[in-house]
Design a protein that fits this description.
The protein is built from 10 helices and 10 strands. It is α+β, with helices and mostly antiparallel strands and about 290 residues long. The protein folds into 2 domains: about 5-165, 2-Layer Sandwich (Ribosomal Protein S5, domain 2), CATH 3.30.230; about 175-280, GHMP kinase, C-terminal domain (Alpha-Beta Plaits, 2-Layer Sandwich), CATH 3.30.70.890. Strands 1, 2, 3, 4, 5 and 6 form a 6-stranded mixed beta sheet that branches. Helix 1 (about 70-80) runs parallel beside helix 2, helix 2 (about 110-125) crosses helix 3 and helix 7 (about 220-225) packs across helix 8 (about 225-235). The two termini are about 15 Å apart. The structure holds 4-diphosphocytidyl-2-C-methyl-D-erythritol and adenosine-5'-triphosphate (ATP). Belongs to the GHMP kinase family. IspE subfamily. It catalyses: 4-CDP-2-C-methyl-D-erythritol + ATP = 4-CDP-2-C-methyl-D-erythritol 2-phosphate + ADP + H(+). Its EC number is 2.7.1.148. This is 4-diphosphocytidyl-2-C-methyl-D-erythritol kinase.
């Protein structure tokens, strides 16, 4: 057994996001198209036999025990160590390191993706043999976006983002910019002016796209509360159709040509942190794990 894995934790974009209701527990019912893109954090998971879970590379602003990587590892350890019907057993541990490239709280799902990579990677490193379904169920306890990274495919999502159907999307080039402001997901979802009553549509209709369907219902309120997002969006919209991903703050513009994307990214890069990314239909994580 290999004692160490280095694995990617890619970003996602919400190509569209509609809010169709609110549950009694405050969580929102969504309809969204997730697409994984080819920019990633890089994680290394190394086996240790003393049972400890340690993150050796602290992430700025996130306490060790709150880090979604550490929480994912401990959750898996607890759950596998006390599996129903099995004799409780001593579990191995892991040292985790991360090379963080994705912005935090940007709507690119970085934290959720880190958690998914830890769950899939340690499942293999610890030879647990848990199914993707079991790992996605565990992951959902950590964040609404974890399951899509566990399955690792473009997906139509409903519920709070956990009812996933694999789909195949076009794979354009994206220019992603971070308007240098942090948007709080809970605050946007609590905002009294948020649109929560979009009419549910079918997956087939969503896949046909079109300007009125491929919108993000969080966008108007995020623009209103965060003028820096509005400014960046209006700037980028000069060049191509632009949308917010998740609850922001990141914005993405869609291009058919890599060269045009790179030209616009160069201009954007003079004002904001900017990435050029290609849309994918399968995640580089699943490719690396040979799933
Ligand atoms: C907006 C999206 O990025 C779309 O992909 C996700 O749904 C957010 O996923 P996430 O960051 O993993 O969110 P979580 O950590 O699960 O939730 C953060 C907070 O956002 C709110 N929240 C989140 C997801 C959802 N469907 N409804 C909500 O109301 C809840 O107040 C929650 O406390
Ligand atoms: N490993 C981690 N990487 C990033 N954020 C983490 C991590 N662990 C915990 N967090 C916390 O989670 C918060 C959300 O981070 P994340 O990068 O997932 O946001 P996001 O891109 O907006 O995600 P989403 O699109 O799912 O809303 C961060 O502000 C941070 O406090």
């Amino acid at each position: 057994m290999s004692a160490s894995f280095t694995l990617p934790a890619p970003a996602k974009l919400n190509r569209m996001l509609h809010i169709v209701g609110r549950r009694d527990d405050g969580y929102h019912e969504l309809q969204t198209l997730f697409q994984i893109v080819d920019i990633s954090d890089q994680l290394t998971l190394t086996l240790r036999d003393d049972g400890d879970i340690t993150l050796a590379t602290p992430v700025n602003g996130v306490a060790h025990d709150d880090n979604l990587m550490v929480r994912a590892a401990r959750l898996l350890q607890r759950s596998a160590g006390t599996a129903q019907g099995a004799i409780p057993r001593a579990m191995p541990g892991a040292t985790l390191t991360i090379e963080k490239k994705l912005p935090m709280g940007g709507g690119l799902g970085g934290g959720s993706s880190n958690a998914a990579t830890v769950l899939l990677g340690l499942n293999k490193l610890w030879q647990l043999g848990l199914s993707a379904t079991a790992l996605a169920k565990l992951g959902l306890q950590l964040g609404a976006d974890v399951p899509v990274f566990i399955y690792g495919h473009s997906a139509w999502a409903e519920g709070i983002g956990e009812k996933l159907t694999s789909v195949t999307l076009d794979t354009p080039w994206f220019v992603i910019i971070h308007p240098k402001v942090s948007v709080s997901t809970p605050l946007i979802f609590q905002d009294p002016e948020l649109t929560r009553d979009s009419r549910p549509i079918t997956m087939a209709r969503a896949l046909q796209g079109g300007a009125s369907e491929w919108r993000n219902d969080c966008e108007a309120i995020v623009k209103k509360r965060y003028p820096l997002v509005a400014e960046a969006l209006d700037w980028l919209a000069q060049y191509a159709p632009v949308r917010l991903t998740g609850t922001g703050a990141c914005l993405f513009a869609t291009f058919e040509s890599e060269q045009t994307a790179r030209t616009v990214a160069e201009l954007a890069g003079q004002r904001w942190p900017t990435w050029v990314a290609r849309g994918l239909n399968t995640s580089p994580l699943q490719d690396a794990l040979g799933c």
